[in-house]
């Protein structure tokens, strides 16, 4: 894992943007793996701006998202489908049928997970996966204890994750209890990964990640076994690193 330390959330977004932009210019038909949450919003803003400036195009790019809540329709303002349209897809030239996200409303959730895995294969795999990290070390919604050989599956969110995400909902009880997430083995098959961490709440997860002890207690620790991972942290998230 390569570590890049930057000053603050803004510098983190700028660094991540340069990384994604370079890959997109090298390979216009890039397959992007996308994340939601607060951390990549600044990256998406920069990608939208660069598209508007004519610096980059997504016309040939494709994307898959890491996860989606079970039970939220795509027009629910807290669904990840909505988040992605709001922050990125509505503002760029990626064709409508070129981005995919798990359908948390599928009647048969197992079949939806299988469809999603097949879709990633059909795209030829993910070229560049963007990840955030949970305070408990989750990546996607792979919570502590998730097996490293997991593929796309339905997962039950931990109380810690539901509390962390409660800020986006009217009441904490409104936070869905389940999600569909790419599995850890699915994520590990990406050809390249960038993990972004910003703020004090991520300090402990980042400290544990760089202890480089691989354990399902810290799902992100599997990334130490991947040949091409860049971790970008701001000063607060990286404060406990040597
Ligand atoms: C989002 C996702 C999650 C988040 C993580 C951090 O698609 O898969 O793993 O990346 O929960 O979220 P934020 O960025 O809100 O701190």
Strand content: 15-25%
Structural class computed from helices and strand pairing: alpha/beta
Spatial order of strands in the largest sheet: 1-10-9-6-2-3-5
Regarding quaternary structure, what we see is single chain
Write out the distinct hetero groups bound to the structure.
fructose -6-phosphate
Span of the ends, CA to CA: 15 Å
Domain count: 1
Cα-atom Rg, whole angstroms?
Answer: 17 Å
Shape, principal axes of CA atoms: globular
Average of pLDDT: 97
Which fold name fills CATH's third level, the topology? Rossmann fold
Give a description of the structure.
- Its EC number is 3.5.99.6.
- Residues 10-226 form the Glucosamine/galactosamine-6-phosphate isomerase domain.
- This is Glucosamine-6-phosphate deaminase.
- α1 packs across α2 (41-52).
- The chain has a single domain, classed as Rossmann fold.
- Helices cover 29% and strands 17% of the residues.
- It is globular, with a radius of gyration of 17 Å.
- The longest helix has 18 residues, at 9-26.
- It has helices spanning 9-26, 41-52, 80-87, 109-122, 159-165, 184-188, 203-209; strands at residues 2-6, 31-34, 62-65, 67-69, 99-100, 128-131, 153-156, 178-181, 192-197, 229-234.
- A 7-stranded parallel β-sheet has the order 1-10-9-6-2-3-5, sandwiched between helices.
- Fructose -6-phosphate binds next to loops.
